[in-house]
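Hi R.,

Here's the chain you asked about this morning:
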Amino acid sequence: MTHLIEVNNVSKVLSRRRVLDAVSFNVPKFSITGFIGPNGAGKTTLIRILTGLISFQGDVKLNRVPISNKTEALREVGAMVETPVFSLYMTGYQNLYALAMLDSSMSKQERKKRIAEVLELVGLTGREHHKVKGYSLGMKQRLGIAQALLNHPDLLILDEPTNGLDPMGIKEIRDIILKLNRERGVTIFVSSHLLGELEKICDHFIVIQEGKIVKQGSKESILIEGGTEHLEDAFLQLMFGGQ
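And here is the predicted structure, written out as tokens:
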């Protein structure tokens, strides 16, 4: 089985606290993998490591390339870490074009074409020339996913993509994730505290607690080990023995 993320014996100390302790896991290619755990378990720290934002001890490979070679490792990776930040007084299109300009290998016409494609993928066609200050939170999150898709990624890393959204906004993000995976073959690694939502889209899970991986495997294996048909119950069983 091919893995797009390979994490081996990764540790991280912040303010004298061991946030990650010898973490190892793999993310299968073409999967939608849910990364779950209690608040403070180390999820965001690990995602910052995967996106090359912070240093660490251990080994990480993205699509078989060590993250130490950041430019090459992240070449086909898109990411949205926490709440995306855009210029509120620029339009959605202008924000994306400014980001696309960072890729000097693309011509002007290629940038325009790719921006149109990602806007269509996230359902913002028709609103791209509106200023971002007028966007709803859900639209900003979708614009964040659009910017993560500009480089045609094989791997998309999302940290709490539905945080703060209403039910309709959550469904819009869910539909985008499923479409990217099923129609475009994008491997997706997603962290969220909305277990019921992840249960609807993920086929693989990694469970972290107090900086250590306590379980990883298919959704079916997680549910079988938890002795239940529902992810939330299985999660509680893994965390607290069902108490």
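One quick note: The beta strands are 3-14, 17-28, 32-36, 57-62, 65-66, 77-80, 155-159, 187-191, 204-209, 212-218.

Cheers,
M.
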